[in-house]
Write a structure and sequence with these properties.
With 352 residues, this protein is of the alpha/beta class. Helix content is 43%, strand content 9%. It has helices spanning 16-25, 28-58, 100-120, 169-184, 191-213, 271-274, 280-293, 301-309, 320-330, 335-347; strands at 73-77, 87-91, 132-138, 145-147, 152-155, 223-224, 239-240, 249-250, 254-255. A hairpin with a 4-residue loop joins strand 4 and strand 5.
Length: 352
């Protein structure tokens, strides 16, 4: 049984501070798109606060819940509007539509299901076969993608700074994992618990990408959202788990603000207390543990993080130390894993 869920609509994969920056420093057209994206997100947030997820779920067509090991997907087209879910364009088992955004969303929803089922025997987001729903072509050049508590939503990007948001499989994995986190731990989306919420979504988003590519920890790029930025932007990705703070440095975007160590922790009221910023610290801890252990990151380090996420002692307001302590305990059965996990948290200044 899942625990009481936190705010089901955390935010999109693009942090609000990045959109604020673009609204001030980008070209006039991108400024307009960034402001429109921020307005839509405020409307979505207000709608969720008033109606909750039950109303959003009621608007979705009935979808078949399949037996464990079988994913149920449906991709809709919002046709550049904001009414959800839109028109159904590809249901489970149907052939490619020829629309790149539709087919990428379909494939990436499936890749996320595959990681959680094949590695952790988790039957979808709720572990009860929840159908995976996605809506593409949302808004007019909308600069974000988000999980609203019931489904995925993808913008097409403005074409100057952002490409379409269905491009990156780890972005889909990241946003769907917010649903997993809410069902398992209900981590409050504020401060360190919110940064853990974001970090766990990055961890499993990255593992979805690595699992799909058959990559080891050593082969992975450990970038979140590689490919989302156009060639006109000086950016490798949204975030780097290996080197937080190094993902981008661009006149329109500014410089990546993520710290990778507690000595650089950012104490701020913005970004829900720095949830997208300070997530760099636990992100780097996972990267250090996974690369120290070697091999597929989803097997040992990923198992420890997944078991910790499901640990009933992980409170909704858990801080970094509480989460780190539980990961060390979860790794205690295997000495090399235990040592690698503890050392990773020590290197980022969370544990002594």
């Amino acid at each position: 049984m899942s625990r009481v869920m936190s705010d089901p609509w955390c935010s999109g994969v693009i942090p609000p501070y990045m959109l604020d920056r673009l609204a001030q420093h980008a070209s006039p057209r991108v400024r307009q798109r960034a402001l429109a994206t921020l307005r839509i997100e405020q409307q979505e947030r207000s709608l969720r606060a008033i109606q909750g997820t039950a109303a959003a779920s009621a608007r979705l067509p009935a979808a078949t819940i399949l037996s464990p090991g079988h994913v149920s997907r449906a991709v809709f087209n919002a046709a550049n509007g904001t009414n959800l879910p839109g028109q159904l364009v590809r249901a489970e088992g149907q052939p490619p539509s020829g629309d790149a955004a539709v087919d990428e969303a379909y494939e990436h929803l499936g890749a996320t299901y595959e990681l959680f089922w094949q590695v952790y025997r988790r039957h979808s987001i709720d572990n009860a076969g929840l159908p995976l729903i996605g809506t593409v072509h949302y808004g007019d050049d909308y600069d974000n993608a988000f999980w609203n508590g019931t489904q995925m939503v993808f913008g097409d990007g403005d074409g100057e700074v952002f490409n379409r948001f269905t491009l990156a499989v780890d972005v889909v994995g990241h946003e769907l994992c917010h649903g997993v986190v809410d069902h398992e731990a209900g981590l409050r989306y504020q401060g360190q618990s919110g940064a853990l919420n974001e970090s766990l979504s990055d961890v499993f988003g990255s593992l979805v990408k690595q699992h799909r590519a058959g990559q080891s920890a050593e082969q992975a790029d450990w970038l979140i959202g590689a490919g989302l930025f156009t060639a006109a932007v000086n950016a490798r990705a949204l975030r780097s788990m290996a080197q937080p703070g190094s993902a981008y440095d661009d006149p329109a975007l500014g410089k990546d603000p993520q710290p990778g160590h507690m000595q650089d922790y950012v104490d701020t009221a913005d970004d829900n207390g720095g949830v997208h910023i300070n997530s760099g610290i636990p992100n780097r801890a996972f990267y250090l543990a996974a690369t120290a252990l070697g091999g597929p990151a989803w097997e040992r380090a990923g198992r420890v993080w997944y078991d910790t996420l499901r640990d009933k002692r992980l409170g909704a307001q858990a801080d970094f130390v509480a989460f780190a302590t539980l990961t060390v305990e979860a790794a205690s059965a295997d000495s090399p894993t235990h040592q690698a996990v503890h050392e990773a948290w020590r290197q980022v200044g969370v544990l002594p």
